[in-house]
Design goal:
It is a single chain. The protein has about 375 residues and is an alpha+beta fold. It has 2 domains: about 10-145, no CATH class; about 155-365, no CATH class. Helices cover about 25% and strands about 20% of the residues. Strand 2 (about 45-50) and strand 3 (about 55-60) form a beta hairpin. The longest helix has 24 residues, at about 155-180. Mean pLDDT is about 90; it is low at about 1-5.
């Protein structure tokens, strides 16, 4: 199928209407999910499509190998194919760029795909008819592809996690000012290992919620259980709500820290961010422009600290221990997790629990310094 509008080149609004009218199809979820339907906008050159898992696609005819010199590296680019025409069992190789639907009412992902498709149609109409030529025109002098290509940026979840950790780091920096300590003490507490922040047995796990409620994802049953040598464990509950009416993306949250952090420690701080997920795998503030089209993060609720102790009841290995009289003494504690279970994730609702406040809260912060 080709574009249904009678005019060529079509406008972005016409293309968006066409994109939203495509019946979403396919199996699986995420970038690699297959079977989505696509409409050729420029036959055997450019197509747009939708997948049933709320994904919007733009296709350029060709293979990743053939177009390697023309298309930038990105985490949301994959080799695909389109049946041409539908039902023919004849397939055209394509390079697909996909955006996951954020679920926002403004649907920015479908609009971004449509803007890029409009630009490509305009270039084609002006006489640039090859896919490499169109891809080159989409990147210079105006970089339209930056609207849709995720150029090795951190995942949204990682960005959200960093925003939460930066909120605690800012509190520690300001606490250093109160106590007359070097800001290096705050950076030293940001261990980024098994615990987000720790010192001398006091440990803090930062949990950043992307919603409006204080409900947090816990990645495994050991995350909120005290380990060897740990004396006290706390959850720092922060808000990092995705809000496109807001202007502060990850780079601006980093700027907030740099504003209050002693200049002598800027290099140390930025290096830690560059290695957030391992050596050289993290956020590079010198390339902040790559995050221009990533989501902004707003604050839906104030950050609070919660002690991991009753009445909080996180799910841990001990949660599976039988407490009946017939079981006590027959199995070692924390050894009753079902043997075939290889991964346990859950959500922790902190609503209704009392946070650590006042002098006790300051004491938790001070113990990290």
């Amino acid at each position: 199928m080709t574009i249904s509008t009678a005019t060529f080149p079509p406008s972005a609004h016409q293309l968006r209407a066409q994109l939203l009218s495509i019946a979403a199809s396919g199996t699986g979820a995420g970038l690699a999910a297959t079977g989505a339907f696509a409409d050729w906008i420029i036959p055997n050159v450019l197509a747009i499509g939708r997948h049933g898992s709320s994904r919007y696609d733009i296709h350029f005819a060709g293979t990743t190998a053939a177009l390697a010199a023309s298309i930038p590296a990105g985490s949301n680019i994959i080799q695909d194919l389109i049946e041409t025409p539908p039902g023919s069992k004849i397939y055209t190789d394509t390079v697909r760029i996909s955006l996951e639907d954020s679920g926002l009412a403004t649907n920015p992902e479908s609009m971004a795909i449509s803007v890029v498709a409009e630009a490509a149609c305009n270039f084609y109409h002006s006489g640039i008819t090859t896919v490499p030529g169109i891809l080159a025109a989409l990147q210079s002098p105006n970089d339209f592809l930056s609207l849709i290509v995720r150029r090795n940026v951190l995942s949204v979840n990682d960005q959200k996690g960093i925003v939460g950790e930066l909120k605690l780091l800012k509190e520690l920096i300001l606490r250093c000012d109160v106590l007359g300590l070097h800001h290096s003490r705050a950076l030293a507490a940001w261990t980024g290992g098994n615990r987000d922040f720790s010192k001398a047995g006091t440990c803090v796990e930062v949990k950043a919620s992307g919603g409006i409620e204080r409900i947090h994802h816990v990645s495994n049953i050991d995350q909120l259980a005290q380990g060897p040598g740990e004396k006290a464990l706390f959850v720092y509950s922060a808000s990092a709500q995705i809000d496109y009416s807001h202007h502060k993306r990850l780079p601006e949250h980093v700027d907030d820290v740099l504003t209050i952090l002693s200049r002598a420690f800027h290099g140390m701080f930025l290096t830690r961010l560059q290695n957030y997920r391992g050596a050289g795998v993290g956020y590079d503030h010198a390339k902040r422009h790559e995050y221009s089209f990533e989501p902004p993060f707003n604050t839906a609720f104030a950050s609070e600290i919660y002690a991991v102790e009753p009445p909080m009841e996180p799910l841990t290995r001990a949660s599976f221990d039988c407490q009946e009289a017939c079981c006590i003494g027959k199995k070692l504690p924390c050894t009753s997790v079902p043997s075939n279970v290889i991964e346990i994730k859950y959500k922790l609702n902190l609503a209704g629990l009392a946070p650590v406040t006042g002098a006790a809260r300051d004491a938790v912060l001070d113990s990290l310094l």
